[in-house]
Amino acid sequence: RGLAGRAWLPADPGANVIFLYDVRRRAWTDAWHFPDAVSDLSVHPDGDRALVSCWDGTTYLVGRDGTVRQRLPVGQPARVRWADDGRSAVLGTQGGEVWAIDDGGAVLWKTALPVAEVPPAKEPNRPVFEGVPVYVVGRVGPEHAYVGDIWLVKAKGGAFLVDAGGTSAVPLTWQRVRAAGVESKDVHHVLLSHTHGDHLGAAYLWRARGLRVVAPATAAFSATWLTPTWSDYGIWPPCRVDQPLPLARAGDEAEFTVSGQRVRAVFVPGHSFDSVIYLMDLGGKRIAFTGDLGFDRQGILNRCWGDREKAAAVLRVVRDQVLPFKPDHVFTGHDAQREGTAFLQELVRRTEEALRQRP
Questions:
Q1: Which residue has the higher pLDDT, 140 or 15?
Q2: At CA 245, angle to CA 242 and CA 246, rounded to 5?
Q3: How confident is the model over 208-234, as pLDDT tens digits?
Q4: β-pairing, 97-102 with 243-245?
Q5: Cα dihedral across residues 70, 73, 77, 82: positive or negative
Q6: Would you call 93 helix, strand, or coil by DSSP?
Q7: Alpha-helix runs per DSSP H in 246-330
Q8: pLDDT at 180 > cutoff 80
Q9: Which of 289, 335, 89 is nearest to 191 (CA)?
Q10: Is 237 exposed, middle or buried (0-12, 13-18, 19+ CB in 10 A)?
Q11: Edge-to-edge order in the sheet of strand 329-332
Q12: pTM, two decimal places
């Protein structure tokens, strides 16, 4: 569904049935059917009833036999939880309303929590390099390991993002997007350079706001399972890849169009098994988005975690397929390089030198 920006997992269309499993009999028993997709549920401590929140904005108090005992017109999908003693329950919505009910579904009280809006930017957001419509809209302040850059690219048919950053950056990023002269309705896609938490983290929230996620097909494994469950970057909701690119081996290429902008994707698995470089012409300049392929004074071997075989394969791709593009500017996952071709040449040189050394 996308959940309209709600910060919990999306429901697939038709996800309106809850199935019950009898542990002692080791068998599926009843199924509860609802008029809309289920958002959340909480079983009462006595096991005799449950609260079920649905996308029609109603929270249902349901008996063990599936009979609806009470309907609460909350108006939005809600998170629902029973108290440990089962005497009351709490419902919370994305809009900031909190409801308390008793064990029979009667409303005890409800209140609206105050919401602090992010103040608008005081100054216009200017391009990173004059004349090239690429803006930094994510990370601010000193570098640190848990936040990658988010690049906003203006194109003929709207705009798109390269990388998603962390979940906490979304409200600030929207203000910086607006400060660049772009409305949220005009941002249509987010392109992932790789699926590490500091670049993938907020992809789900961007998708919830209507953006389509573009990434190599292999990224679906990390985006929907690996990173959300096994990452030292924090807790990331799973995110579907809407436009999987047919990239399987180092050097594979694919071309596609987003917001009227033609993009060439070059596969460079090494830093992650789904790393990709995006090449495009913008504002009369040749631009490369390289993710975490390499940084100043670091070669590809370092970014491939010392794996010489992977680094050698990525090196060949950069030297033979990316460098001939002669990018004017390179935007990495954590900085921007004005002299793009020289940056990649130095990256190749350092990597070749590192690979010549004995392991």
A1: 15
A2: 135
A3: 888 999 999 999 888 887 776 565 566
A4: unpaired
A5: negative
A6: strand
A7: 300-303, 308-317
A8: yes
A9: 289
A10: buried
A11: 253-258, 261-267, 276-282, 285-291, 329-332, 336-337
A12: 0.76
